[in-house]
């Protein structure tokens, strides 16, 4: 409910209300602003909102500029509520601190400090030095959750890893024969395409590429366009991807990267490159080392969100590394059995149930006949 008064006693409620609106606005940029953070801004005079905006896409004006444009002259003496510390450096756009000062904003409330090295407290310091009242930390936890992928990329230099799988009720990714089409229904597959469309890359293992011959492109309803066109990646130590596979045959149209071990046969590597695939050779002597190197490479490319679609060996290896950040599981009300049928997470796993990784921010929905569960892995 919108606060109806703007007395000093009501200020914390007003600040909270406006910041929640700014967070809602920021989330609208998901998939389009990366590697930038999602940021929303509300300009208000007391309880009244006079301008609002959000960062709509990478390279576009920042949230503060959009909100100040709407507010116009009413921004003078107002409070700006921003989900992230305003930037104070020249990048693709001018500093937001300059825009706030030029508009005559009297107070800035922001949720979260920006750890980006060219900001990192500098934005708040510049505004404070110019006489602007500063308050930080309002709904900081929510802002941190919203921009967790951005924060991981900045601090760990690796992308946020989103694990996706579809499984039967008894936990199988495929029958013992390898057949997996289709476990989940059309509604679930539509959600998967939307997930792909907000990620920088979609990753599968060599076994999944061979068994399913996937295309891994984003296919949305007619008239809808994805936020991004993800790079398609196959983790394929021996460079075994068939040249007549859908991935290789479409590599000139939608990029494909094959991550191979240094010992991969040179003739197969050359053939994949001739087909239009980018091949990255990883020097690690173990699967874990090579996966870590691949994540480092994707971090250098400033990939923010990476969707890993299987199979169980690849997902298990990433889980063992502690690199799975988010899970999207589609559970079909089907039973298939089979001791040899694959499961979502292979790898070494954890030794004790007490060590199991819980999920936070869990959401459960029904999609047709399937159950869709998503959440973030508690670290």
Give an account of the 3D structure.
- The chain is an alpha/beta fold and 379 residues long.
- It has twelve helices and 14 strands.
- The chain has helices at residues 11-27, 63-71, 96-103, 122-129, 140-146, 148-156, 186-196, 206-212, 246-249, 266-274, 287-300, 312-320, and strands at 40-45, 48-54, 79-84, 107-112, 133-136, 160-168, 201-205, 231-235, 256-261, 278-282, 305-308, 326-332, 359-367, 370-377.
- Helix 9 links the parallel strand 8 and strand 9 (256-261).
- Helix 3 (96-103) packs parallel to helix 4 (122-129).
- The longest helix has 17 residues, at 11-27.
- It is elongated.
- The protein starts with 10 loop residues before the first helix and ends with a strand.
- The model has no long low-confidence stretch (mean pLDDT 93).
Spatial arrangement of strands, main beta sheet:
10-9-8-7-11-6-12-14-13
The number of helical segments is 12
- How far apart are the first and last residues' alpha carbons, in Å? 34 Å
Which whole number gives the mean pLDDT?
A: 93
Unreliable residue runs: none
Q: Radius of gyration over alpha carbons?
A: 23 Å
Return the string of H and E elements. HEEHEHEHEHHEHEHEHEHEHEHEEE
Into which percent range does the helicity of residues fall? 25-40%
Largest beta-sheet details: 9 strands, mixed
Structural class: alpha/beta
Say how many strands there are. Answer: 14
What fraction strand?
Answer: 15-25%
């Amino acid at each position: 409910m919108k606060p109806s008064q703007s007395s000093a006693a009501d200020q914390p409620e007003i600040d909270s209300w406006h910041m929640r609106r700014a967070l809602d606005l920021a989330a609208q940029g998901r998939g389009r602003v990366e590697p930038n953070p999602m940021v929303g801004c509300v300009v208000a005079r007391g309880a009244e909102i006079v301008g609002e905006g959000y960062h709509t896409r990478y390279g576009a004006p920042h949230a503060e500029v959009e909100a100040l444009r709407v507010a116009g002259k009413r921004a003078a003496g107002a409070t700006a509520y921003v989900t992230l510390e305003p930037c104070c450096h020249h990048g693709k756009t001018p500093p937001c601190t300059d825009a706030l000062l030029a508009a005559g904003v009297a107070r800035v409330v922001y949720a979260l400090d920006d750890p980006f090295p060219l900001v990192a407290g500098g934005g708040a310091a510049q505004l404070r030095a110019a006489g602007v009242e500063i308050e930080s930390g309002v709904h900081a936890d929510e802002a941190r959750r919203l921009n967790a992928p951005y924060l991981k990329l900045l601090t760990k230099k690796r992308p946020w890893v989103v694990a996706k799988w579809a499984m039967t009720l008894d936990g199988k990714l495929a029958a013992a024969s390898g057949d997996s089409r289709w476990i989940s229904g059309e509604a679930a597959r539509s959600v998967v395409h939307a997930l792909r469309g907000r990620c920088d890359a979609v990753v599968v293992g060599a076994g999944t590429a061979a068994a399913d011959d996937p295309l891994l492109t984003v296919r949305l309803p007619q008239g809808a366009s994805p936020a991004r066109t993800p790079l398609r990646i196959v983790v394929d130590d021996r460079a075994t991807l068939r040249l007549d596979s859908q991935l290789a045959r479409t590599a000139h149209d939608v990029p494909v990267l094959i991550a191979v071990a240094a010992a991969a046969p040179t003739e197969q590597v050359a053939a994949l490159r001739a087909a239009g695939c980018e091949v990255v050779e990883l020097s690690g002597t173990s699967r874990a080392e090579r996966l870590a190197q691949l994540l480092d490479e994707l971090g250098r490319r400033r990939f923010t969100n990476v969707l890993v679609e299987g199979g169980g060996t690849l997902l298990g290896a990433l889980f063992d590394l502690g690199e799975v950040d988010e899970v999207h599981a589609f559970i079909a009300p089907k039973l298939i059995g089979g001791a040899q049928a694959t499961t979502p997470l292979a790898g070494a796993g954890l030794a004790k149930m007490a060590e199991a990784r819980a999920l936070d921010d869990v959401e459960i929905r029904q999609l047709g006949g399937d159950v869709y569960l998503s959440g973030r892995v508690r670290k």
